[in-house]
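Title: Prediction job returns without error message
Component: structure pipeline
Severity: low
Priority: P3
Assignee: unassigned

Description:
Job completed but the reporter wants confirmation the result is attached to the right record. Sequence as submitted:
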Amino acid sequence: MGFGTFQPDDNPKEGVTEAVLRALEAGYRHIDTAWNYGNGEAERGVGEALRKWNGKREEFFIVTKLANPHHKPTDVEAALELSLENLGLDYGKEVDTLK
């Protein structure tokens, strides 16, 4: 079961960071996010939570999504790199597309 980070509140990064930390404490290891959840703020919040949690990268299954504006083949690589940067990760395990 995954923990979603869609629209946590008016302050997406801090709201997501706190929610994901609580989810990690509860045993979640699958976290779902997307660039378009606050224009990258949710991804940055997930990244901050993972840094604060200080677990091993292999323990987590992070899913992000390629937003509609980034579906053109020429935009995909840059969009994925931006998401990885926002998340503070050097690789991802799954990327979905939003339609």
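Comment from assignee: result matches the submitted record. Helices lie at 12-25, 41-53, 73-87.
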